[in-house]
């Protein structure tokens, strides 16, 4: 594996590149670059951790407006089972994941993670999943896409503000690294799972991080300095997101679970940033009214805890489309239920494959809700040209995957119908 040229990159970009590469060599380069990072240790008491794997919001940092901030570094590790699940394998997976919880505080300063299972994983069991779990096979969701589907067994999502932590956690689970933040690794995931390195994905979020990637072809110098996301604006305002309660499955044997959709997409960033003016980008990403009333600011700083979409503006989607341009968020908000957004978006930027993109990761009660909102966002029903239909003409879907994130108590190789 070739490491990037240190002298050609900023420190943050170098660290981000190491996360994208992964493996033992990248980890040791990351450790020598970062020096001793003070990472808070975790807990020996699993009862002190949330029952839901997706319960991250209470332990993540907040921005000045009180919105939850995504950890800076993310790795999605696709996993394939080596043999059929047994009780011994379940115990091994649970022990290995508890090692992570002992090593790192459950927070953005330490590590948050989830393990999710695909419909392909559950297919091996005789029983089907209970009715309370809506987890269909992934499918193409727009006429324009021909995605590859995540048909492996599971995905581990690792997230931390420290690049070193996500790399180290991965190496502790699969490599030769036997000390995680001072905690000995006695059990790892090898023998139960194989990591599918070719499908490994990584990414980042944070004000200023996208602008540090102009060395990647397809990332123009015009990426706004302070933007946390490539397309140039803040995202994930707390009142425009589902709560963790809203996305939790409450009934049945998987009470405490949620479903996860991962849509990996490429963005035509240069065209997005260089073809249109800032007001036109605001029109296409938020709504025409957001541009006319100057509601957004340079990178979304005028919006505080909501994306500012009123019921009136959401109802005006069809008319705005007929008038020429319709906003991405405006269209997607048509998928709200009784005024509430059903999706908890935890998407992040990526330059995997040396191209700018987004791993759009969202949690929702059932995959049917994702599909409904995605259809509203696509807006095939709207009378508008493709180039003015939100951000549709700038995004290209590569992969899709559906997952169940069981509660922590069932996270180790769950059967379809646990007692
Ligand atoms: C390059 C990809 C994408 C970018 C840059 C992007 C960006 C944004 C931004 C800036 C907002 C407004 C701020 C906010 O509410 O957080 C937003 C809202 C939203 N986006 Fe996206 N998005 C992308 C892809 C997607 C995809 C694939 C979906 C799938 C359904 C989606 C669903 C939504 C929803 C549901 C909202 C909020 C609507 C509401 O207020 O109810 N986005 N997005």
- Biggest β-sheet: count, sense, barrel? 6 strands, mixed
Q: What's the domain count?
A: 1
List the uncertain runs: none
User: Mean pLDDT, nearest integer?
Assistant: 95
Radius of gyration over alpha carbons? 21 Å
- Give a list of the ligands: protoporphyrin IX containing FE
User: Helical stretch count?
Assistant: 12
The share of residues in extended strands comes to 15-25%
| Shape estimate | globular
Share of helix among residues? 10-25%
Distance between the termini: 46 Å
Oligomer classification: single chain
- Class derived from helix and strand content: alpha+beta
- What are the secondary-structure elements, in order, as H or E? HHEHEHEEHEEEEEHHHHHHEEEHE
Tell how many strands the DSSP assignment holds.
13
Description of the structure:
- By secondary structure, the protein is α+β, with helices and mostly antiparallel strands.
- The protein has one domain (about 1-419).
- Helix content is about 25%, strand content about 15%.
- It has helices at about 10-20, 25-35, 85-105, 120, 165-175, 270-275, 280-285, 290, 310-315, 315-325, 330, 365-380, and strands at about 75-80, 110-115, 150, 155-160, 180, 185, 195, 200-205, 260-265, 345, 350, 355-365, 395-405.
- Strands 3, 9, 10, 11, 12 and 13 form a six-stranded mixed β-sheet that branches. Strands 1, 2, 4, 7 and 8 form a five-stranded antiparallel β-sheet that branches. A two-stranded antiparallel ribbon has the order 5-6.
- Protoporphyrin IX containing FE binds near residues 236, 237, 267, 329 and 332.
